[in-house]
């Protein structure tokens, strides 16, 4: 479930989400 929402959040804020969900 982490990699699915990560893509959506990455488009909005890859900086903040990338730290929380490092793919």
UniProtKB/TrEMBL annotation:
Residue span of region Disordered: 1-23
Q: What does the record give as the organism's lineage?
A: Eukaryota, Viridiplantae, Streptophyta, Embryophyta, Tracheophyta
Stretches with biased composition (Polar residues): 8-23
This protein's name: Uncharacterized protein
Task: Name the domain of life.
Answer: Eukaryota
